[in-house]
């Protein structure tokens, strides 16, 4: 069944996702005065020399090169007849630490369940309110943002979570900046405007020290120009021109679309790792794997519906995700892609549901709960002919004669330099 029919016109994520903004941080130390650093119109900035190969500060010291990211497994090619692992990606739009402490909470949930995740950071969460005019959103006046900005304590808290998350093997992607949806929003942006938005999203991460005046704080332990390889667009809009811009700027994947539970393929040079449609218990149509879409189909655009139904609604989301997982696990083994926000909609029932799904699936045999970076590393390491064959399997379809027969041919060797290639002989 086609995705457009399954979703029944329910895939658009409206601007109500701004409820996931950093509204809980209210401490202002007043140290962020001065001119600050606006998002540039072109990439610039060089790294300082590394002291004894330990830490090489970049730009104003907001970020630093500290070596290869820890806890990243080396991807390996499937052996002849080998069943693919079941990948599951938990991803978070507009990631930031606020008074709900959900970023830190789900970091701990991931560690306890052998999982890593992708956190799509909104760049304006690294920009204090008093410096809002440094943000120049395409087709909007300076200082406009539909999800607001942050304060210095909120930025400090978010920086701490980003640092720890990266050191634990999680990925820091981007959800861009102002989260503009609908007319005049990201869906109307040109390729050039998308590039300007991406450059600003990077720049706010690379200059948070200058913009907050926190010059003695520890840097983020990564080079964001190299770290940033993927994104999800606000409201899943503007994908066509974003993908063109992203390909030119070194991105490797996009997760802004809607798809069935089938194996990913590349579109316009980027891996299309869209969110997916899974069973919606009690309904004849399927549901997108995102908290907001479950909410809209349960309580409408009201983020706090009937309290008597909160538990049921959370169970409905949990069970739908678990049914989608089991369908893939027993079937075609297509990666399951799940997207969420750090939110408290309907009493926090969706956060409870996601946590229960993590606990249920990430500890199973042959399951890998990974970031998008780890997933696309694995996909790049595979024989393209093997991936093409995997894409012939429909939703929930296991090979009729078993995996050993289905993938029995010897895969071609990985090209030199591709992840999964044999190590060079000494």
Automatic annotation (TrEMBL):
Low complexity biased stretches: 409-426
Chain spans, region Disordered: 29-83, 405-426
Signal peptide: 1-26
Gene Ontology terms: biological process: carbohydrate metabolic process
PROSITE patterns: PROKAR_LIPOPROTEIN
Swiss-Prot/TrEMBL keywords: Signal
InterPro entries (alphabetical): CE4, Glyco_hydro/deAcase_b/a-brl
Domain of life: Bacteria
PANTHER family xref list: CHITIN DEACETYLASE-LIKE 4, PTHR45985
Protein name: Secreted protein
Organism whose genome encodes this protein: Streptomyces mutabilis
